[in-house]
Amino acid sequence: MTAQDTNFAEETLDPADWAKARALAHRMVDDAIDHLGGVRDRPLWQAMPAAVRASFSGPLPQGPQPLEQVYSEITTSLMPHPMGNIHPRFWIWYMGAGNFTGALGDFLAAIDGANLGVGNTATSQVDQQVTDWIRGMIGFPDGASGTLVNSGSMANIIGLMTARNAMAGVDLRQEGMDAMPQPLRFYASDQVHSCHCKAMNVLGLGKKALCKVPSGDAFRMDTGKLKAMIQVDRAGGFRPACVIATAGTTNTGSIDDLPAIADLRAQEGLWMHVDGCIGALIAIAPDHRHLVAGIDRADSLALDLHKGLQAPFDVGCALVRDRRQHRQTFAEDAEHLRKRSRGIAAAEFLHDYNLDTSRGFRALKIWMMIKEHGVAKFGRLIDQGIAQAKYLDGLIGDEVMLELMAPTVIDIVCFRYNPGGLDEGTLRDLKIEIMLRLQETGVAAVSDTTIHGRHSLRAAICNHRTRRADLNLLVAEVVRTGELAAGASIKRSFGITE
Ligand SMILES: Cc1ncc(COP(=O)(O)O)c(C=O)c1O
Prior knowledge:
- The strands form two sheets. A seven-stranded mixed sheet has the order 1-7-6-5-4-2-3, with helices on both faces. Strands 8-9-11-10 form a four-stranded antiparallel sheet.
- About 40% of the residues lie in helices and about 10% in strands.
- Strand 2, helix 8 (about 195-200) and strand 3 (about 210-215) form a beta-alpha-beta unit.
- The chain has 16 helices and eleven strands.
- By secondary structure, the chain is an alpha/beta fold.
- The radius of gyration is 25 Å and the shape is globular.
- Helix 4 packs across helix 13 (about 365-375), helix 6 (about 150-165) crosses helix 12 and helix 14 (about 375-400) runs parallel beside helix 16 (about 470-495).
- The termini are far apart.
- The structure holds pyridoxal-5'-phosphate (PLP).
């Protein structure tokens, strides 16, 4: 082979036959539309037969197979066994239900192929525009910075890492933890999401640095106790650094007293981070935005667009009031990633604001969804979810066998089946049995949790496909299943076999 010889076999991943690829891609889009359009008519979830499960443990394919065949495996084995979160009666975890435009956005983002970590590109402009829209939605000031990340957990890490570095009392990035003059203390209510424990681990502070402040009857942080804990820690040689307020707790949807925490933050000279993964976007919901008044006073904030905006997974966002502090926490200088005055590298580098260097084009789906529907519709959908939760709360109040377990503040409802006369342990088993039967029959998905020591079922209605009739069905099915399961458990407790 000579240097001029171009006549040898080189490979590419492009289709050998674009016309065939086009036909298959069109079929996939048609199937996708049928799949989404018919979601209500299918069970929410179904157990996977052993053969299907086994089909995912074959050996590493060494040779090729037609894409049609690969796709057929997806339609027969994968698509019939989803998590169920696109179904109208999925309320088990607080997740969004996705949407078609967002899915198209993910497809087009992959076709564009950009890596948004660096680059003077239109994709980077879209990302920055989306981040700035979100900043405006929350009411953070002009010039505040933000970054799109994969999840709310990561968005919290970005905010808390900025807080840690800003409050450490030393150039932590350079000197490391050993140089810190005092151990830091972070505060959050006992209802805080577990991702903050992961964050303490990642931040090198350890879980003991996260002090849990008791929550009161309404599951909100007791700010009087917070103040007392700060004083005790200060006297004990610790440096109170950051209070994490939750806007929308995972268990009950309670919203910490944001204005009071913001006042305390100012008096005590702390950093205020808000975990708004569930509730921050209530700021755009006209009927309920008063619930999150004061959220714009935070120093940093985490939110989830795959929840509040119903974007397909995964996309979260961190906002930081002080852009300089945000950038200082993450930006590094590497020659191969140096900004230039012209060409592809002549732009703000988005990777200077988070931990990733490479990152996908998550912004496109959000950009398309907001342009298509307008932000007002997303606000109305959040109001709709909260109104549906209040409706469910009313249905539960009217049903003698059911009991509310926590105040319904946003779109999360905690309740239990209680036919009376059963001890707490039997009741707990019964509720778990109801929950599992509802899942296994594919009718509806709710979860269970323990709040202030009381076991409860929980419906999290972060779902734009839910209708009130679905909630009527939930109540009817919980009661019906409860009666069946209670009958069986009472027989069992008397040793009667069926
Ligand atoms: C209050 C709260 N914070 C953080 C998270 C973590 O978000 P993600 O699952 O996007 O990492 C959740 C998840 O539901 C949450 O409810």
